[in-house]
Design a protein that fits this description.
723 residues; disordered C terminus; alpha+beta; disordered N terminus
């Protein structure tokens, strides 16, 4: 068991060493003594509440304390006679939870609810009483925490655990904040439990509550929870890490010397800043040890520079990089692009006179408060602004980018608890994020803005993050101005423009699952694919992404932004919309047939398309279709051609020139890797007149090295593969 959890004096020392807000142990002892004496007020404030009030006023000088006093009196009287397993009066627990939240800067309503958070669950107090005495908002929070207390955290219940937590939380992050503080105090005093129960609680804390603290940005709680879990689940490694930290404690601290130089440098530059040495917590030291080997004294902490304004952060960075030798690879700007959990800082590393490398964090005091307390530092994130009330029953999601709202939507739309749980675990495990800047507008979906995605996410993930279910109609993208397939993996800072098909009846292809990294995308695609398939079984989706290495645009089978050719065909199905299949791109005067798909749309295929035979084999009934104007070819159209050729330099340029000479526009092009000195080029082309297709194909065949040009959807002749 962790020494912090069982030895209060040692816990206080560890808290000072880490440089993080830590519950004052003497305050806890005073709380315990005052609780034993009851709720007798002194100067209008119960003795046991004095320390909480002092800390609360430090963050909120004008806060009213009457409601806290009233809540304490109710909590103390209702819990009177109840004892914790440690032998302390039970009231010490809600007091300790409230003090943890007060240290993090929680506002008065949250503290009031935390004092009362166990009353409805463990005493005769009812929610109606809470509502009558403290109002709807406090009642809402107490009800949410009460429901969380009823969640079974047993291993067998894991798939349902988080779903119930989300339902209980509703859409108020303060409920989760109270739960996290509640778990932290319970973990600190876990030593009274049986070892097997300690392990079970520690595992759920590791798998669910620590990632939650990370997502909500509450680093102060997350770091301490990690250490407490580390001590229980990995006692040998924990003991070794403690010994390592203790060994270095008696040696000169190289970071202190570097910090002194940094203070002098900033003073000479007339930049007001506070420079601190911020020790790493035990889990962080262990991770450094695993990544770099035996750590040095400089590896056991980081420098923290606190300034007043955002501009001062960059001024400090400039001075450090001018007066010290920077480690360029360590620089990260989380001020310009904040992390998913509201975190903002500049990260860099500089080298000291003796060669030690000091990792350095630069942030404002407000950024530091948010870095430590996350959403708790926002006060009441749901308070109306500018006199405007939120719509009835709705609360704005303060998490970035709407992570809580996304989880609530998943739990509503995913009936299978195992699927939800695995998706949730995947999402919680993603701690590396990229930011993509997405262009849009009223005609193309949401307005311009940044999208936060996990590292390794593709255009498919971005589409669902931006458009939700409407992303089923996405057919391609432009990444940094260049056409790209939906399978393209995005990088931090990429500019993205998603191309949406006008046909709402289209849907994702099964291959999209191979390129989707985010649970939101995978769940949405899986829901679509699991729908009844009697109306379009066997037909490939026109949105199926390709991954040809040399692709210069959306895959040839993809639908495009413009589909005017679809109106050239008429179906023998009254009221049905018509579209041309992307697999074979029929044009007048091709012999064609059609099949009804989702949404009452009829997809038109060439009669020789392999898809037609597959659909007929499954018993699908064709729909009669014909070209407008009795099959006249004097209309613009789109077609996909495959050029088989021997590989040679400048082949792509020569083919493109031949196509342009025919007055034909290239919509997209892809080049497959050469195989046995042969190569295949695939072009999606827009012809001003379908009658020009034969001459276009002849012109392409005349390009040196090209031995055949085929229509997409036609079987590739084996003879064409021979020299």
């Amino acid at each position: 068991m962790s020494a912090e959890a069982t030895d209060p004096d040692n816990a206080e020392a560890v808290g000072r060493r880490r440089g993080r807000p830590r519950l004052d142990v003497q305050g806890l002892r005073r709380i315990g003594r005052a609780a034993l004496l009851g709720a007798a007020p002194r100067d209008g404030l119960p003795d046991a509440l004095e320390h909480v009030a002092k800390v609360h006023r430090r963050h909120h000088p004008d806060a009213g304390l009457d409601i806290l006093s009233k809540a304490y009196v109710l909590a103390e009287s209702s819990h009177r006679g109840q004892m914790r397993k440690s032998g302390e009066p039970y009231i010490t627990h809600p007091l300790a939870v409230t003090l943890i939240l007060a240290e993090l800067g929680a506002e008065t309503t949250t503290l009031t609810a935390s004092l009362l958070h166990d009353t409805v669950e463990d005493t005769e107090v009812t929610l109606d009483q809470v509502r009558a005495q403290f109002g709807d908002e406090v009642c809402y929070l107490v009800d949410g925490v009460t429901k969380l207390e009823k969640v079974d955290y047993g291993a067998a219940a894991e798939p349902e655990t988080f779903r119930k937590m989300l339902v209980a939380t509703g859409n108020d992050v303060r409920v989760m904040s109270i739960k996290l503080a509640d778990r932290l105090h319970n973990m600190r005093t876990l030593g009274v439990m049986r070892p097997e129960k300690q392990v079970r609680i520690a595992k759920v804390t590791r798998d669910v509550l620590i990632p939650l603290a990370e997502r909500l940005g509450v680093q102060a709680l997350k770091s301490e929870l990690e250490d407490l879990v580390f001590a229980i689940l990995h006692p040998e490694e924990y003991a070794a890490t403690r010994r390592l930290v203790a060994e270095h404690a008696g040696r000169p601290d190289p970071l202190a010397a570097i910090a002194a130089r940094v203070r002098t440098t900033l003073d000479e530059a007339r930049i007001q800043a506070e420079v601190l040495v911020r020790p790493r917590h035990f889990v962080s030291v262990h991770r450094v040890r695993m990544a770099r080997g035996e750590p040095t004294g400089a590896d056991l902490g980081r420098l923290l520079v606190l300034v007043t304004e955002d501009a001062d952060c960059y001024a400090v960075l400039g001075e450090l990089h001018t007066c010290f030798t920077p480690v360029v690879s360590e620089f990260k700007d989380f001020i310009a692009a904040p992390k998913f959990n509201l975190y903002q800082s500049l990260h860099t590393a500089v080298t000291g006179e003796s060669g030690e490398i000091a990792e350095t964090l630069i942030r404002t005091h407000q950024m530091h408060r948010v870095a430590e307390a996350g959403v708790i530092a926002l006060g009441n994130p749901y308070a109306p602004t500018d006199g405007a009330d939120a719509p009835d029953g709705e609360r704005a999601d303060p998490t970035r980018p709407g992570w809580l709202s996304r989880l609530l939507e998943w739990q509503r739309t995913t009936p299978d608890p195992d699927t939800f749980w695995s998706s949730l675990r995947d999402d919680l495990a993603q701690d590396l994020e990229i930011t993509v800047f997405c262009a849009g507008g009223p005609a193309n979906g949401p307005a311009d803005g940044a999208i936060g995605l996990p590292a390794g996410a593709s255009c498919v993930d971005a589409a669902y993050a931006r458009h939700g279910e409407a992303a089923h109609c996405c057919i391609g993208a432009r990444v940094n101005g260049r056409l790209a397939t939906l399978a393209t993996v995005l990088r931090d800072g990429d500019s993205l423009h998603l191309l949406m098909a006008p046909d709402s009846a289209t849907g994702p292809a099964p291959e999209w699952l191979d390129h989707a990294r985010t649970p939101a995308a995978r769940l949405a695609i899986s829901r679509w694919l699991s729908r009844p398939t009697g109306d379009d079984a066997g037909e490939p989706s026109p949105q199926s992404p390709r991954t040809a290495p040399a692709a210069t645009g959306p895959a040839p089978g993809d639908a495009a932004e413009l589909t005017p050719a679809a109106v050239l065909a008429v179906a023998d199905l009254p009221g049905a919309a018509v579209r041309l299949a992307g697999c074979c791109t029929p044009v007048p005067p091709d012999n064609v047939t059609g099949f009804a798909v989702r949404g009452g749309t009829v997809t038109v295929h060439r009669a020789l398309c392999p898809v037609v035979a597959r659909m007929a084999a499954t018993g699908r009934q064709p729909v009669g279709v014909r070209w407008r104007g009795a099959g006249k070819a004097g209309h613009g159209c789109r077609v996909t051609l495959l050029a088989e050729a021997f590989s040679r330099p400048h082949l792509l340029a020569d083919l493109t020139e031949a196509i342009a000479a025919q007055g034909v526009a290239v919509v997209s092009a892809a080049v497959e890797p050469p195989h046995e000195q042969r190569v295949r080029h695939t072009y999606t082309l827009h012809l001003p007149n379908a009658a020009g297709l034969p001459s276009l194909m002849r012109a392409m065949r005349e390009v040196p090295g090209v031995f055949d040009v085929l229509r997409a959807g036609r079987a590739r002749p084996t003879a064409a593969l021979r020299p």
